[in-house]
Write a structure and sequence with these properties.
The protein contains 8 helices and 2 strands; from the N terminus they run αββααααααα. It is an all-alpha fold. A two-stranded antiparallel ribbon has the order 1-2. Keywords: Membrane, Transmembrane, Transmembrane helix.
Length: 259
């Protein structure tokens, strides 16, 4: 109470634990995913093995898409010379990049801002997210609206997995199961978003006057408590899904059919 001010400590931190380990793991995993997703996006191939379309290319909207992979039409013509994945990946990646949890993850892992609790930042100044380009993080809610649409599309892709190679319904394989799990995880991650929690129950003065929104808010809040875990599991499973379809498209594997 009679202190002249904050303690003057010259050391960067007094912590003796391996505080840098979570940041190292986070940076490594996010870095590997960025490399993998970039290579797959520019590969422009091995993304469709009937009836399975990888989520990295869904929806395939270009006239250059392989036959039968464009269930929503091809509004993008040959004037777009890049891979069809570039057209759609900006939206799910934008949603994840502006996600509150992922901000914390890559701020700490790549920018060291802050590196960890009770660890001094290497930066001399701090302006938060009030200036360009970090002020663009505020568009996260709008990316959430688009992410909800992509959740519907990925669910539709999973339903198409109940067809066989001839287009007949009533069949299912390992790819069908993988796509169903992927769609479920994407839904869980999207609905557990902090923006979703605010949209369902934010700015209400009396929950008793809005019972349906209160019910939705309680469900989203329960998911929100697992947002970090859902962010990682859905990201890893996205790679598993894409890699499985890549192997099928290359003929390195044959899909296991259950019925």
């Amino acid at each position: 109470m009679n202190s002249a001010g904050r303690a003057r400590i010259g050391a960067r931190t007094l912590r003796t634990d391996r505080w840098w380990m979570p940041q190292l793991i986070t940076g490594a995993v996010l870095g590997l995913f960025a490399i993998y997703a970039t290579l797959r996006a520019f590969q422009n191939g091995d993304y469709y093995s009937e009836p399975y379309l990888t989520p990295l290319y869904s929806p395939c909207l270009s006239t250059t898409c392989v036959p039968n992979s464009s269930d929503f039409g091809t509004p993008v013509g040959h004037w777009f010379p890049l891979s069809p994945a570039i057209i759609v990946l900006i939206f799910p990646l934008g949603f994840r990049m502006t996600c509150y949890y992922y901000r914390k993850a890559y701020y700490r892992a790549f920018w060291m801002s802050p590196p960890a609790c009770a660890v001094a930042e290497p930066h001399a100044r701090y302006s938060g997210e009030t200036r360009f380009p970090l002020i663009l993080q505020n568009i996260h809610r709008y990316f959430w609206y688009v992410a909800m649409l992509f959740s519907v599309i990925l669910s539709y892709d999973a339903i198409l997995g109940f067809r066989d190679e001839r287009g007949r319904w009533g069949h299912a394989g390992l790819g069908t199961l993988i796509l169903l799990v992927n769609a479920a995880l994407i839904w869980a991650y999207t609905l557990s978003c902090h923006s979703c929690r605010h949209i369902t129950g934010g700015r209400l003065k009396h929950f008793s006057q809005h019972p349906m929104r209160y019910w939705a808010w309680t469900k989203v809040s329960a998911l929100n408590a697992r947002h970090m875990q859902l962010a990682w599991v859905s990201l890893v499973w996205l790679v598993v899904t894409d890699f499985y379809i890549l192997l099928l498209a290359r003929g390195a594997l044959s899909d296991v059919r259950f019925f």
